[in-house]
Amino acid sequence: MSTTTISPLRQRMIEDMTARKFGPASQRSHIESCERFAAYLKRSPATATPDDVRLFQLDLIESGLSIPNRNRIMSGAKFLFRVTLRRLDLVSEVFHMKEPSRVPLILSQDETKRLLAMAGCLRDRLLLSLGYGAGLRAGSYAGDWVTRSIRRRGEPAFR
């Protein structure tokens, strides 16, 4: 039977998370985040300075991690600083990044006119106009319908 010893800091963090009813996956994620921070520091996170936190975040950015992963790691470290260590000076150094919003593909005026001109009857033109006016994307309401009606007429499909 192997006995593994848990550091007092880790044990206290686990107890803090259990008291707040964190699920197993959240606990595992927070612990792994703190392990990563400790590996970066090469010492206990309890001895961290504000500069250590700032440099760790810059290291995460330079490593090419996605924004949600960086935020997840820093959430675990922030819990350690705020709840377990009660080091509010370190909490103020943690920043979360916002993921840039993706701009949806929008048809130009000419493309919209061509699309509406391809609609055979008033009903089809009306459906396309309403869908486009409501901001729906072609794939969400028309998708194959447009391609099928274009193919029926023998015209080349555009994308």
Order of helices and strands: HHHHHHHHH
Q: Count the strands?
A: 0
Give average pLDDT, whole number: 83
Give the proportion of residues in helices. Answer: 55-70%
* CATH class designation of the largest domain: Mainly Alpha
Q: How many H/I helical runs?
A: 9
Model description:
The chain is mainly α and 159 residues long. The protein has two domains: 8-91, Tyrosine recombinase, N-terminal domain (DNA polymerase, domain 1); 109-153, no CATH class. The protein is 64% helix and 0% strand. It is built from nine helices and no strands. The longest helix is centred in the first third of the chain and has 18 residues, at 24-41. The mean pLDDT is 83.
Features:
159 residues, DNA polymerase, domain 1, 2 domains, mainly alpha, elongated, single chain
What's the short story on this structure?
With 159 residues, this protein is mainly α. The chain contains nine helices and no strands.
Topology:
Blueprint (H helix, E strand, L loop, with lengths): L7 H12 L4 H18 L8 H13 L4 H18 L3 H4 L17 H10 L3 H12 L4 H4 L2 H10 L6
Helix pairs in contact: 2-4, 6-7
